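Need tokens for this chain, all 470 residues.
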Amino acid sequence: MSKIEVNTVEPQCGTTLTLGACGQTVALGSGASQTGFGRTGTVDWVTTPQTGTVTAATGKGYFVNTTSGGITVNLPAGVVGSIVAVSDYASTAASNNITISPNGSEKINAVNDDYIINTAGLAVTLVYADATRGWKSVTGSDADATGQVDAYIVATGGTPCSGAIVCTNYKVHTFTGPGTFCVSTGSGPLAQADYLVVAGGGGSGYICGGGAGGAGGYRESPGTASGCYTASPLGTAPAVALTLSVQGYPITVGGGGTAGSPPVPAAGDNGSNSIFSSITSAGGGGGGGGNAPAPEGGAGDGGSGGGGGGRGTQGSHPAGSGDTPATPVAQGFDGGTGSPGTGGKDAGGGGGGATAVGTSRPANGPGGPGGAGAGTNINPATGETCGSVQYYAGGGGGGTRVCGPSPGTPGPGTGGIGGAGDSASGGGPVGENGTDNTGGGGGGGAYSSGTYYAGGNGGGGIVIIRYKFQ
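Here are the structure tokens for all 470 residues:
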């Protein structure tokens, strides 16, 4: 093979230089690159899927994998004829969006803002046309790649409060059961929503001073996005409002845990989780069974921990741990331990609440009171504007055994009162259920006049979404 080494090749005459003959191919050597020949409207695809922020280069196409979360693609500085392509590799862009951001003050279809790919499997090819229109889509799809225009939320689902208008500019949607929060409009900073997500409370323990159920986990945003209300102490940083996009958000409202039941001394069941978007609140821990060896005497871990069961012949029973699993702002507190008394004065520990631990039962004392819940006015009653404070996620009160003193009282929020022994006052022999749609823990079970009484079930949870709509 012959070899010619020159720095410049020019035509002998005229202005056209022809390389190769008809039907032949002119190829660049391996690893060589070209400049000045322009492109043919296609890209060279980077075949390795991108799983993090992409700094795009002109002439390249990128497969973007958003399986684990949304990803941003930063466009290069626009030069007329520059071309970049992006494809939703795993078809997950509907839930985890791909954000294509222009360089500086440049535009995407005449708008200086991001373009959001939120359709599963979508691919788009963008060419920089000029400074007026910026990057334009040249694909054959129906998608018109237009930069994001901030828009207020328009949504349906749940039960709107007070005609859905609060303080003139805000709407509230309340879910007391499963459903879908359907966002038909909304983008950018205007599409932020505050939330309250409370899980189901734990069921109480059965027999002889049963431990109370812990409250369902309580998670709330700070309230600054939709204004005109005061969030609970749990609505603080690092908790933040959620920025929503056009899609349906499935809502899960956790049910309360079932109380332990005969014929054996049994711990109560944990409550179920409540979920909205990326926010999950854990069900409350079940209360421990009285007169029961481990593990039935011990309480469950959860959003708030259950109270330990009582009864002298089996010794003290541990309480459940709250904020399990851990969240950026603690969603609840530990329950109280159950401990033996003398002369049959046994009682269970109180369930943990959203803002306080359940009380451990002192020697020969009453059933442990439940930990306090949290108060917020995110959800005003009919006819109110900013609303009065309502409490959620209080722990249940521990139950008592024969000849025991008073049963445990629930924490504000509202858990159930514990069951009462023979000489106890208040509550009756059966532990009360936690109040539904508050996430309250169930009141502990009791023994009275030769009969063993069950404790209460946990109360179901609730999900509340609030946003500015104008």
